[in-house]
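Researcher: I'd like a candidate sequence for this fold, 197 residues long. If you have to choose between options at a position, lean toward the conservative one.
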């Protein structure tokens, strides 16, 4: 074995018998940026594509443009759903009262009003099924799933609202050129503005 091959070894963390907890997510050393906790397992994300970053920028700016004082918008912050689940929505709208300071690394599910996931090739299943189910179970009232329109390269936003009886999301609409909704507050975003980013 050469010195070079020893030098390039990766030491992956070995999970505990019952899986990781959100406490582990915040205390394990040297985790890659944007590591998520799903069902007690650490999920590492691939480098994001330009579309992904541009959509996040577009939505964060658009959401902030009409934001009431009682709400704030954040990108890529962990949301603690329960002891074994700490996903990181691409964009979140949350209650201003949930802010604890500049060193804050997470929010509690009960403070989130909207979770947004921008679908990437490595996260399709999580963004389309796993995360929405978990957000709904945790009581997050609004969820948006954003896909890339293959023909135009622009975002397509699928809007969901929580049915309080079934604790499941109901599809409320699909938006291609502009997203104009009234929940969690009055929002109007020109999705074609991504062309200028």
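Model: Candidate sequence:
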């Amino acid at each position: 074995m050469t010195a070079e091959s020893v030098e390039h070894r990766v030491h992956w963390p070995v999970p505990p018998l019952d899986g990781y907890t959100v406490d582990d997510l915040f205390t394990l050393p040297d985790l890659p940026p944007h590591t998520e906790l799903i069902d007690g397992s650490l999920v590492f994300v691939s480098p994001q594509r330009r579309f992904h970053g541009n959509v996040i920028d577009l939505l964060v700016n658009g959401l902030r443009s009409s934001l009431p004082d009682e709400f704030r918008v954040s990108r890529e912050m962990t949301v603690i759903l329960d002891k074994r689940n700490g996903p990181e929505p691409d964009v979140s709208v949350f209650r201003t009262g949930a802010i604890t300071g500049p060193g804050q690394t997470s929010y509690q599910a009960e403070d989130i009003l909207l979770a947004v996931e921008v679908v990437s090739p490595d996260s399709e299943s999580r963004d389309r099924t796993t995360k929405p189910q978990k957000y709904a179970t945790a009581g997050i009232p609004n969820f948006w799933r954003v896909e890339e329109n293959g023909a135009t390269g622009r975002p397509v936003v699928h809007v969901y609202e929580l049915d309080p009886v079934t604790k499941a999301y109901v599809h409320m609409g699909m938006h291609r050129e502009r997203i104009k909704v009234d929940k969690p507050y009055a929002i109007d975003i020109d999705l074609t503005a991504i062309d200028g980013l």
